[in-house]
Write a structure and sequence with these properties.
single chain, 404 residues, alpha/beta, Aminopeptidase, Alpha-Beta Plaits, four-stranded antiparallel sheet, 24% strand
């Protein structure tokens, strides 16, 4: 089908021949953006591009307000080909289907370029610009080669001075919706192709640094050690235990640990564990974070370790508009399948766009729940159902009934 062919075509645009790597404001981003723009033109949309490289396909309607449909075309390192990209493609195909209808609102399809944050230590910069919440200090952030975001914008042929012009006015944007592969196993476990997102989960990053004393691995008795890594290991297990005890309300992950001095025959004197804590329930996340901090202090005291705990990321839960949820659910039922409502554990451009207007999301089943991985896969049938559900949503969309 068309969606699968388009996904594969963009998936071939990469900086590396043997894996998918498409970073923000790179030549590969340029090639992908040009391909998306060509598809938009052929779909009958008027195409433009803003200062942060967001490609916009515009379909006029009978009213001044616009339904924004989007996702991103950048990738992580060694990515799958569906993440983000399919949401842009679904928007183009749905808008093409609706181009001869007399809709009481316009449609803008948006292809953002910086959802993953794989190049610069910032994320959602392009959707933040559209939402009018771009922070100028982002321009000074550097990639691993020392190139600032401002310089990358210039190299891409744009001007940082034009970033404010990317923002929509509050009276323009009726809502923002996004179609996205689930990136998790919930839909597959329930044997359902589509789901309705209730909220994008909030997130806390905690850096826990344990300071002990390096020493000889063979000469220091166990009872006299101040092993920083042993303290961090106990802390990691505590985070897992607390998340399990939340009965599904929250998750906690440690995917990065730094150990010094890092020699096999030296007791670690320093260890840093980065905790990623997420929940769609703000009180549940706050409760877990506080319990973890208290537990970290107890571990450090018992093991005679120094401890520094720093929160490096705090993102509030972003709820999806109830009426948009209902309209997506109705569109799914009309296709002969039941909608499942649940929260998104991954971040999305909707977190930025929610600062502009009400948002909603439609999830598509992906095999094994695998994402950010070359094994990422969604079937052509499920992709087709998602496009059909998006079209059904557009046909049901009533801006006047939204909460925002």
């Amino acid at each position: 089908m068309r969606a699968e062919a388009m996904v594969s075509e963009l998936g071939a645009i990469s900086a590396e021949p043997d894996r998918l790597v498409r970073l923000f404001l790179t030549p590969e981003h340029r090639r992908a953006a040009d391909r998306v723009a060509d598809w938009m033109c052929k779909a009958g949309l008027a195409v433009s591009e803003d200062a942060l490289g967001t490609v916009r396909g515009r379909l006029e309607g009978q009213g001044k307000r616009r339904l924004l449909i989007g996702s991103h075309i950048d990738s992580v390192i060694d990515a799958g080909k569906y993440d983000g990209v399919f949401g842009v493609i679904a928007g183009i195909l749905a808008a093409e289907h609706c181009r001869d209808k007399r809709l009481p609102f316009g449609i803008d399809v948006l292809a953002f370029g910086d959802e993953e944050g794989s190049r610069f230590p910032v994320t959602l910069s392009s959707s933040s610009a559209c939402a009018g919440v771009f922070k100028p200090e982002m321009l000074a952030q550097e990639d691993r080669n020392g190139v600032t975001l401002a310089d990358a914008i210039k190299a891409y042929g744009k001007s940082p001075a034009d970033v404010p012009a990317a923002a929509y006015r509050l009276d323009q944007a009726a809502a923002y919706v996004e179609v996205h592969i689930e990136q998790g196993p919930v839909l597959e476990a329930r044997n359902l192709p589509l789901g309705v997102v209730t909220a994008i989960n909030g997130q806390t990053y905690l850096n826990a640094e344990f300071l002990g004393e390096a020493g000889h691995a063979g000469t220091v008795p166990m009872r006299l050690r101040r092993d920083a890594l042993a303290g961090a290991a106990e802390a990691i297990l505590l985070g897992e235990t607390l998340a399990r005890e939340s009965n599904g309300a929250a998750v906690a992950t440690v995917g990065r640990v730094a150990v010094a001095p890092g020699a096999a025959n030296v007791i670690p004197g320093n260890a840093v564990a980065v905790f990623d804590i997420r929940s769609g329930d703000e009180p549940a996340r706050a409760t877990l974070v506080e319990a973890l901090k208290s537990g970290l202090r107890a571990i450090a005291a018992r093991r005679h370790l120094g401890l520094t705990v720093t929160s490096t990321r705090e993102v509030a839960t972003t709820p999806c508009d109830p009426h948009i949820q209902d309209q997506f659910a109705d569109a799914i039922r009309a296709l002969g399948t039941e909608p499942l409502r649940f929260g998104s554990g991954a971040g999305h451009d909707g977190q930025a766009m929610a600062k502009l207007c009400p948002i909603g999301m439609l999830f598509v089943r992906c095999r094994g729940g695998i994402s950010h991985n070359p094994m990422e896969y969604a079937s052509p049938r499920d992709l087709g159902l998602a496009v059909a559900a998006l079209i059904g949503f557009i046909e049901r969309f009533e801006p006047g009934r939204l909460s925002g």
